[in-house]
Amino acid sequence: MSNDNFQPVLLARQNKPNSHTLASYQADGGYQALAKALKMVNTEVIDVVKASGLRGRGGAGFPTGLKWTFLPKDVKGPIYLCINGDESEPGTFNNRVLIEQDPHQVLEGIVISSFATRTTTAYFYLRYEYGRCYRVLKDAIDEMYDNNLLGKNILGSGYDLDIHLHRGACAYICGEETGLIESLEGKRAWPRIKPPFPAIEGAFRKPTVVNNVETMACIPHIINHGPEWFMSMGIPKDPNNPRDAGSYGPKLYCISGHVNKPGLVELPMGISARDLIEKHAGGVWKGRKAKAVVPGGISMGFMSESELDTPLDFAGPGRVGCLGLGTAAVIVIDDHTSMVDVLYNACRFFAHESCGQCTPCREGTAWSTKILERIRDGRGKLSDIDLLLEISSSIGTIPGTTICGLADGAAWPMKTAINKFRGEFEEYIKSGRKSESRSLAGAH
Amino acid sequence: MSELSTNAKKVIEEHLGRYPSKQAVTLPALHVVQQETGCVSRKAISEIADILELSPAQINDTLSFYGFFRTEEDPLGKKRVWICRSLPCMLRGGEELLAELCERWGIQPGQTTADGEVTLELAECLGACDGAPCMLVDDELTLRVTADDVEKQVRGNK
Ligand SMILES: Cc1cc2nc3c(=O)[nH]c(=O)nc-3n(C[C@H](O)[C@H](O)[C@H](O)COP(=O)(O)O)c2cc1C
Ligand code: SF4
Ligand code: FES
User: Are A325 and A296 in contact (CB under 8 A)?
Assistant: First the structure.
């Protein structure tokens, strides 16, 4: 399918009057997918989702249907579905728009997914900052209870489900799935050591699935239009790589930073960063050029200008040294910006958000920030560059020194900024100049 | 006298039915108390602990993890304004905006203006990078703000 005649799927109802109401959603065919799914056997729903190739949109890209099959088959007690609406990866705002504009699309996906996984209680973990989303969701959930779309015997099917909204408290680490579970349980959001994975032992020590909001929004469309339709969009799996699961379906790309038109764009998976910037974001602002582009939230690291033709599918960013597609949040940095300031900003974010339980992450994020503060203050040494690289290769789940992926997310901006822009760091340190940016040093 | 309001107790009671453990009501309880009183006092902590059948230390452990909650030594002003400083906002002036407000109001992030009206906070990505630089007032986002906009919205003509 060519991108030019692509019709938005997830954003199709954006900006319609009252798009957030049940009446408007149903007038556009809403909840027909649910009615259809409830007539199927739950494992058939899983099979359809599996066949669609849908991969989680929350950052890790894990195949959704496959994740659901990890739940134990013969479990007696409850199974929980946790919806991850903690969305805090810098650059990312698609969940906010999905919820504010079309909450029932997300909620329909949640009911279908709950039915598929035999969940009767779902928790929607929403970051506190999304107050408007909270109120929109609360009203939408009330409408569902009033119309037999939640509660007992949904649409006469015999299936019961409750959805509870749970507000976070401004901590990025609550987006990590086991941090989310701990936080839901009323504890500090310290990610758990895995295994056991949540599918075996998750919320309240029961089998649990954690899925992202955008992942949920895809589900009704897959049920309505079938797996082949979903697979007609995106980048097929590489036949020569048995581990490649492909990049199918429509995707929300968040575009921010130095572009003329920041915003949310929906396209089939696999558009290049260059096309996204030029054709969908009005180009780089002030007639400038891009120097570096983040492909999917700052945890993924940086692409250089010469790498902008990389397709933004699950496999593309990894081929140019980034951590992955992440949340597909594209941040554009123009050629007037110092990469020292940019990297400092990224490191400071992770130092601020590290939960502190693993020494390499806690110390590595704090020290990298301090080293960059020193460089920005004109007191850097050339050896600091290799010190930063050393930190970046020793923290994270990929070297295997930490419990969760936050530390990998801290490492990749360091690795890619230094490997791709080393000359700029050297020149900065040699010149002894100070940063012109007014950020408040030391303010944590 | 009880520190928790009738409403706070009601909200906590309502939440108890939603979770298989009482501890899970910790965040909802802290939220309702802080919203009503601008902080979570020591007495409130121990009353929440009583209802949830926990020790005050367990409530405090959770509370102190989330920089979001304030104790009675450090209560919030009437309004809480968060200015985002993460990369997309920084690229469009978020850091300067925060520094400018600190200067105008004579306070540092985390502090409250002398009249008790506004607490200024730094935020990491607020999830509104399409409208950078942005701010959150209590729990409502405003996109594309200048220092003058912020002053007008949160301080009126003061
Ligand atoms: C530090 C960290 C933060 C994360 N934040 C989020 C988040 O805000 N939202 C989200 O959906 N996933 C986040 N994830 C990924 C989740 O752990 C998990 O993979 C995801 O919610 C699963 O849903 P999905 O399969 O539908 O993508 C984060 C992961 C890490 C390591
Ligand atoms: S890697 Fe960092 S954020 Fe993750 S559990 Fe360890 S200390 Fe916490
Ligand atoms: S960086 Fe400010 S809202 Fe995302």
Answer: yes
